[in-house]
Structures are given as structure tokens and as C-alpha cells.
Amino acid sequence: MSASDPYPSRIGADPQVLPRKDPVVHAGERKRLDGPLSSDALGDYERRGFCVFDALLGPDEVDSLAFEARQLARVRRDDASPKVIREPGDDEVRSIFEVHEDEELFRAVVRSPRVIALVDQLLGAPAYVHQSRINFKPAFRGRPFFWHSDFETWHVEDGMPRMRAFSLSINLTENRPDNGPLMLIPESHRYYISCAGRTPEAHYERSLRRQEAGLPADSLLEAMVLDHGLETPTGGPGSAVLFDCNTMHGSNGNITPFPRINLFVVFNRLDNALSPPYSGQPPRPTHIASRSPTPLS
Amino acid sequence: MSASDPYPSRIGADPQVLPRKDPVVHAGERKRLDGPLSSDALGDYERRGFCVFDALLGPDEVDSLAFEARQLARVRRDDASPKVIREPGDDEVRSIFEVHEDEELFRAVVRSPRVIALVDQLLGAPAYVHQSRINFKPAFRGRPFFWHSDFETWHVEDGMPRMRAFSLSINLTENRPDNGPLMLIPESHRYYISCAGRTPEAHYERSLRRQEAGLPADSLLEAMVLDHGLETPTGGPGSAVLFDCNTMHGSNGNITPFPRINLFVVFNRLDNALSPPYSGQPPRPTHIASRSPTPLS
Hints:
homodimer; alpha+beta; Jelly Rolls; 3-stranded antiparallel β-sheet; 12 strands; globular
């Protein structure tokens, strides 16, 4: 950590709650009004750290993407590429990274006018894709993702300087209450939870399957949930959740026969491109965190 | 397996769907009308394999039991007794067995007039407690229970001859959609899912943490859920779910700060007391499956 690190974490100290130093919606007054989110939805996003977009994709579009995602999980099951992550203790595909570069259909949806307008409305300046992946929460044996703030990881392990990014999670299958849906803690984006411990070397090689560092303390999570509750937006294929890079989220496992597949894309402002990681360790591979940002529009 | 085994399973063959050979409600016409369950609720139980009882315990009673359960999890955390089961890869208490014998408050609730009347209404003949336990699904790190029919295990590993038993699961904390609630497959009790594979030796020593045999095939589970759906009865402390010994059920893990604690009691008819296990292996310990049945009333 440098003395000027605005968001120190994993520096060996006790867990700590620090104030957020960045705005949540970065667009100016004009651009705020000029986008797919209504003024109410935008206000909700700003206040709670996330909002739901009911039909971001139409039924045909989402059908093709869902079909393609299932195909990829089959075709790339034995793919040795580091972009394919498998479930811990299993060989089912858990995630496939960088689909916004490698797969034509996913390239197109990430660059569609509607998505670009959303990015502009929230970030208010030229932006690029920091990370993309398809997350498969397989039926019967899908594993949980423990609570985390993405920004904490992106800051410490990737060197993302400030909170000027957000995630778009598009449901390709139904997000049901029982198939390990995304859960978010409203208003958690207003604090930065500095985590105890240090980052193990090459942590990312295991953390995408099961995280070992950057885990917020149970007591802080409990306090946040008691204060602000828990939200589990459910929705059909084509619905989407937008959430701030610092909103605390996680998901339970899935023993139902219903896989939960979603396309997850992170947009970051160009003026917030990655510096060396704040952990002092080598950066993670570029398929996890892009280091050659190309503006979207 | 003997040639006369009415419910063969784990005999090395492929998974199979066999017909149920036993009634679901065992009471005669008079006793059916004479009990805490309304005629509608009883019909529901018979048809779907389970029903919900909204306020089996009053608020004061459930408060004392929940307090006592949490105390036990603390006090018995390092208890070397085989009755205390811990989470896999963790030392949090997952279950404590035989509380209907060892713990005064739990003794009393299992023998309360209301519970005895329920048992009589469903089983229609003298009965005893086959098994009892407190299940703790701890906050943050509670693990899933995969789909299973209890009867399949009790038959193969304990020697329970026929389907003349049911389970009562009393919620001591809120059963929320997000804290790994009980999920049941309606009408699954009408079939016996004979499982592939054989029972490993001393399976129970691991199966109470993570099951390795008696797992129904994914394809059969999927077909049942597509036919009959999935039910997740949620409810406050004091609510209860009654389900037939052969109803397929399971539960997801729990990363929320809300533990899901329930008292689980199995009632079996005296005329269905345990024979030698159908696996041909030694029986499981008596704190898991009583072999000296004492009639309840």
C-alpha cells in the first residue's frame, strides 16, 4: 500500500469500515436525464447501490444467448484455456471469461446501443470493459459465492484506483429464489470494508473457484444486513441487475435442477484505467482484468 | 438384499423408479377426523407428501427452545460425543442428535399432547421416536443437504421395513427463502427411487456431513421437478412442516447472517420397528436410529 492509497485493504490490520470517497452516479445533470434508466431507477441505484432492469433483452435475443452459453459450457468443458474456470472439487464449468472479445453474440450485446447508453448514463465519460464472463451456476451442484465487494478485489489485486465502475448482470435463465440468485446488501456501497489478512501469492488461480482473501468480517456483514436488509432480485431471462462496483453481494449454492446462467460485464471509466495492483503483487492476467482499455463507443 | 425386500436400493444396479407399496395416512376413518390437522390439510399431506402447520408452537415456547438450541451449539461445540456432527471442513455444529432423550425442553415438546395427537392422526397406531436432532444451518457457512428420501436411507442403512413413518420439522428460527430453507418435491412420496451404487462401509460417519450413497440420479430428480414443481415452505419460528418418510427433499447452503435452526423428529410405528439393515452391513448407532422403541403415549 502507498501512503496515498484511498482504499487500503489486506494490509494485515483488523477489518475496518472506511468512508466512500467517490460519487455513485458519475454523469452530470444533463446525461443523468438522458438514458434508459428513469429518474426514479437512477435515484434508486444511487441510494441503494443497485437497480433492476426488467427487460433489457427481448425473448429472442436472450434465447440465442442462453443457447450459445450452454453450447460454450459443453464445447469448452475440456478447454485448457485459463479463461475457463471449473467448480471446486468438480469439473463442471463455473465461469468463462472474456466472452465480450471471443464470442460474437456476446461481443454484440455488450456493444449494443442500449447498453452503451446505460454506461453513459451511469459513468458519464468514455468507458471500457474491465471484465466479462458468463457465470454458470450449474444445476444440482452449483457452489456459492461468498459476500464480497468487487471493487475491493479490483483495487487490491488489479490496481483499479477509484470507484468509477459498475457491473451489469444479465439473466440468461430465470433467477429464482431457490437457484442461488444474486443477493445484495442495499446501501453497502456507501462504505468501504477494508479486509483483514494479506493476499496470498497467485490468489486468483484459486479465488475464482473459492475465495481466500478479501472476505469481509462476519460481524460487519451482519451489522450491514441488520441495518439495511438483504435484497434478492428475481427475474426472468432478459432481466438484468446493475450494481455499483462496491455493493456487497454474494449468492448461495444451487441444488435445484435449474441452472442459473448470467452474463456479467464490468464497465470502467477510461480515466480510471488500472495502475499496478495495490497489493504490490504482479497483476492478474488480462482476461480477468483488461490492461489495454479500448473505449466502447 | 433379501428376495422379499419390498424397497431394494443400492444393490449395484441402475437407478430405478418403483411403486410405493404403503398408504400415506395410516389412521382409519375415525382417527383421520380426530386430530389437529384439518381434513383439508390431511388431504394435502396425503396427496402431496407434506403439509405446513403454521403455529405449532407459541412464541414463548419457541423462544425458549431457540435459546436452548443456541446454547447447546456453544456448550457442545467441543463435545467429542458422536451425537454432535460438525460442518464439513469446519467445526461449526451442524446437528445434535437424540435431543428428545437428552434435553429436558426437547423431551417435553416431542411428548406434548398436540404432537402426540398429530402422530396419532397420521400413523393411527402406537408409535415411537426413530430419530431426533437439532439441525443448525449456521449463518454464513451453512452447507447444503442434497436431495434424498429419508426412507431410502432408513431402509437400507437402518432396516426400517415399510413406509410407516413421518418427519416433523419445527422451525426454531425463521425459514427464509434465502437461508437454505427446506425444499420438497410434491408427490415424490408416491414413488420409491432406488439408487445406484452400494453403501460404503461405515457410511454414516461421513454421510451426516456429506452424503456419498443413496443419492437419487439427477435425471430422475429433474423429471420429478418438471412434473410436480418444487415447494419451499417459509415460515416464522414455531411453524412446522410435516412430511412423509419418502418425500424427496433437500436444502441449499446458507451465506446469510440468519442461521436456520430446526428441531427434526421422526415418528415411526411400533409395528414397523427396525430389522437388520437391508444393506447387510452393521446397523448405525442407536442415537441415529433407535433400536429399543418405547411407545410415546
